[in-house]
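Final report, section 2: Outcomes. Of the targets proposed, Accessory Sec system protein Asp2 is the one most frequently requested by collaborating groups, and we therefore present its record in full.
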Amino acid sequence: MTNQLIPTHPAQTQTVNINGFDIKFIHKPCRKDTAHLVVLLNGYRHGGWEYANSINFFKCSVLMIADVFKNGQSCYLGAQGTFEFSDAVASLIHKTLKSLMLTADDCTLIGPSKGGFAALYMGLKYNFKNIVAPAFVGHIGSWMVRYTPSIADHVMGVGYDGKVVEKYDRLLLDLIEQDDNPDKNIYVFLSKADNFYLELGQREVTQALAEKYRNFNALYADTELVFQHDQVTPYFLQETLSITSLLTQGITTRLNKHLTDDILQPSVIVPNERTKAVFAAKRSRYQDKPKAIGKLEKIHTEQGVMFVEGLLYLQGYDSPNYHYLSKHLKLKSVSSKSNQEYEFALGSVPKHPISREIFSDMYFDYTAAGTATMGLKGIDLKNIAQGRYEILVSATPSAEPEYRNYIAPKLNSELEQHDSDGYYNYRLNKQKDSLFLTKQPIICEQKDAQFHFSLKNTWAKDHLFHIEGEFLVKGADFSEFYVSKYYCVLRHCESGKQYAIALGQIKQENLGEAIGNFNGGYQACYYASMNLKGIDTTSFEHGKYEMFVSLAYQSEVFSHQIPQLLAINEQGCYFDKL
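The predicted structure is given below as tokens.
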């Protein structure tokens, strides 16, 4: 071993070489006077750590070991049919224990799913006393083949056959059979609704553990909040942390024996019958009027089409599929001179886990809570009148218009976006807790505006042309990018066809002096083609075009005509006299 084992900063990963193999890990020192080591083994992940937000719950030392062996996840076993990594990991754990003046009995292995398999495998093979394995994988060979073929090739070796898969599937069962120390504390967290329970060996391994070990304990979830594999671990988070914390204090929990799924085992089913009865009674007496909830996760426009995604449902109302909810979006004019309103139907997107995520006091089936534009095709804004509109949403059990209950949807992020379809600028913005859409012509002459316009540089080569310069409007003071947007607008002299191409911005000092502002500001009021590389005209209609630079700032558009024409033909483009 070449590296010293020293406690690290919570986010700092170390690498140690054991038996010629590098192991990545984080060692967190104990936070209180608890002489114990919790070893955290990862499930299937592309980065980060399991229980990353909960690991500080433990008072004792924590050793977090990454499942990276020879540049790939290895289920803490090895590569190409070997088990070299498990030996190296065991050595790392023992060395850490020795440095803390602890023994293998002062250690708890914990990990979910693939990490649960690893906790059982390492604990049984290397005789660690305490094992906590939520939603563990029982048949690791079949799991690799079914879910992660690349890991299967890495771990079992390219060209593995059915006998090799069966060998890996039996790893836990063989260790249980060979183990001569039944005095282990083992806790597993399961759900018969998890397909891993029957299909990937959980039940078989559970029965073998129950028959072998004196303090084996199984907790089963029987709830509508758990109906697939990845929901078992978060459902049992508090119980997992609590049991592990007790183990760090030398306190072992022992469940009473019950016949669960025809297995006589120390076990408990949660929630218990009393809890189920209480929640059923609460649900039967629930009389609150369903309340519309709208939370947008994404909203943007693209070429005059608006897209939204998020949650839209009725709190306190079961909606297992799209038949139960009628969803709409309204654009309502905020002008005192207009009562324009436009309504558009929204679709439902199934989100099965959401019932668990937004559970509050009692269970409702919110599977149809997800929402998006119909067919994910967006809402065409080309036919709405120009103006400013508030964005509202509605969710009702009835499709009848008179029952629609429009509310302002929530958006947790800031919003300031501009987009154009060539004829209009579409601005989306958030003001306090409301969302707004503004539609304005992309060529808009503001006669009363005080401005400064200059064209500093132009060039045309082949099918590319470039423009850059200054465009300042008094009052439109912005020093940062993305607060506003510049466009180069081309209008065909004969057909009237328009193109609006977004321009980039370059920061320059003292730009405000051009309009009599000597106090700074206006630094981002210099426009140019993106990355100064020019604008490609290959897809544009041939002919001559009037040229404009338009500035979209807040809900206004300011335009200035460039005193040149742009001519486009098969050979390329060039500037011409106006």
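The chain has three domains: 14-270, 291-440, 442-577.
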